Input
Amino acid sequence: MAFLLRRLGFYFGAFFVAITLNFLIPRLMPGDPATRILLSLRGKLRPDQIDAIRKTYGFDGSLWEQYLQYLWRLAHFDFGISTVNFPEPTASLLFYAAGWTLFLVGAATALSFGIGITMGIWSAWRRGGFFDTFFTPINVMLNAFTPAVVALLLWYAFTMQWAIFPLGRAHEMNLTPAFNLETVLSVAWHAVLPVASIVIVSFGAWHLGMRNTMINLLNEDFVLLAKAKGLSDRRIRNRYVARNAILPQITSLALSIGYVLGGAFITEVVFNYPGLGKFTLNAIQTRDYSFIQAQLILLTMSVLIANLASDVLNVILDPRLRSLGRA
Amino acid sequence: MHRLRLLTLLATTALAGAGFATLAQAEVIIRIAPVHTDAHVENYNPYNLTGPHAYVQDFAYEPLWIDNVWHPDNDFPALATSYELGADLKSVTYHLREGVKWSDGEPFTAADVVFTFNYAKAHLDFPIGYDIYSAEKDTGSIVDVVAVDDHTVRFELKNADSLARLNIGPVFPLPEHIWKDVADPVNYANPKVVATGPFTEVRDFSRNAFKLCKNPLYRDAAEVKIDCIEYPQLSDNLQVIAAITNGDLDWATDGITDPEITFASKSPDNHYWLPPDAGTNLQLNTTKAPFNNLEFRKAMSMAIDRSTLVDTATFGLTTPAEYPIGEGMFYKDWIDKTALAPYQYLMEYNPEAAKKVLDDAGFLDKDGDGWRDNPDGTPIAFKMAVPAGWDDWVNTLQTVSENLQDIGINGEMETPEEGAWFDNIPTGNFDVYIMWTNLSSTPWFTYHSMFNPRTMVPGQLNEQSMHQMQIPGIEADLAAISATADVAVQKEKITSVMKQVAENLPVITLFSNPAWYEYSTRNFTGWPDESNAWARPNNPAGIHERVKVLLSLTPVAK
Output
């Protein structure tokens, strides 16, 4: 219990530092939203209009005043108004984008975990066999690709050269999302390329991790014993080895889930997918302070919660941590 | 059983889809590239400069007068049918079109124009665009506006000013009966568009797209061949170009690097035309050595290989500037070729001549480090700045830097982040910047922003006058132009201004940027092109002619 309390205290401190940095970092970057508007209009705006815009968005107070106001608003779950998507409240855009990111990155993470683990089991089980010698190097190579290259290649090949898949978006342009077959099909169809572009670069890591742990375990005595007992290969592979080997993978999965809400910048930008990554990138470029802050808070919270969950799991699974708390 | 149900469902969906398709075919919809955005928001405030204004200006809200910037003799009346300048040039009177109705049925009258001016005066932070006279600062020109009768308004000016109408004409009057109740116009999203233009009905709004459809009360509604303008959501150039390449858009004005290969070759319907737009200059900080020396500036201009800039650095899409006048070829009708011919040598690439100019002026390598020094022996080394990521201009400065190094001048390029680049402008803390020029209906505005001494105050420098060189002759000529309505005199004075720019070289003229314009003939024909250049064909906000171009299109029969 004391262990958990100590961790909670740490998380609270980390959270406070994070929200302060969220406030400072965007403001320390050169330029402000008003300058961005002027630059985007390259000379189509009169200079006195810049001051007007600055005033409109309330960037004329002192930094300290702005900070207190920010904390006050935060305490009331008020994330402010987006300056680039004026006058949409930041919160509504944030949750809109978070939904699509959860779907996109969540689906991609689940798929690459499933594919990677399955392939890891197979290639470790028949180490040196055709499957292992063929796929392991390929996955090492794919894993070394950057998402940008893969996303652009897929986009160029399947939307521009052969117009098989849509150019972008999460669904048909004139469709109002609802729970019906039309929406589901449209969303699935539009998700094929973005999901694939994330899966292609990420399942290799799961494959290699699973394979290596499996190989270590295969040399353990209990596997030998199981063989001696005459258990079926399938039982040894799935119940004895894979089940043990997957534990560290699940820990990394928990951590990567914390980062899901960070979005997939490149993929979302290339496919014009309305996720957090795309909105955040644009918010940073246009100095949309309130959106940057809100997104970073969301991300900080999800990472902290994922860590907390893994702490709790560890306490439950690891007796040493429990006794530590009592001592 | 299950399969049957699925089949029925699919069949119904297909039928519904087909029904929708026929319905959609009956409506003529043009898709225009949107302002780059990650999500549409419901904001139809015509003066919200973060982007939404681009959708409703011109198409929904109409100005009094549409200047045809390329062909000033062939302007388009809009809410006014004619105007006249007062004999003393201290007023402009507009005769308003009769029988015009706002889209909610209320009549449009002179009272709305008067209201809009007073509203602008009461809300100075709301960018309506009137150049209102401020006694406190002694700036601006319009003092008051008077409704002579229901259909006549007179704008009173502070000084004789023949050009004031170019600022008054493009302002969009607001409906008094709606906006009189809006206390905070800057933050007003204007959810219901009440305007007089051809397209005022917002339909099918989502973050992905929305339509702006026909105004049934528009005066020529029967002749409008397009039912709706659709704005899809698109985040950047790449997506806009991809969409128009695949036929998903009809009209775009986005940057493109290799249009022949990436765009035009993909479909016989894909076309583009890139007429000259704003000029690109090097703004030299003439308060510092070596830029305070005219011979040095001349040598710099002669050392730059502009054909390489145009062909390779800017991907061959820009238009070479022929004269060192601080402007590209946008105002070509104003250029007096004979008067400017003596200065053409400054635009021709001639490194040997440039070296000779430098030698003669005493810019020699005195400390033996391989670079030329100032005549007083201090070393020359300066930075030329361009924002990172502005690729055409980054390439341009790279080439310029190499050209200068070829003649022994140590000029390096630096690429700060956009915000940092812009933040440095008012402070005067720079050597050389690459910079656009402001455009308007006459070169007067361009030169006014470049040579107005008021904008050369260190600490609050304007990006157009970063050179900080005050040229009294130019100021006098500009004043003389706005004090007369005689076009012949105006042209003569502009030529004089251009000659003085060429003689003094406060900025180094490079080229005209392209006016981006891509269009598809898949759904519409009759687009302006090089052989049919009756109006500017690009469509960002501020190009008021765009509504005329839109209304001139012919839908392709399907």
Remarks:
- Chain A touches chain B through 51 residues (CB under 8 Å).
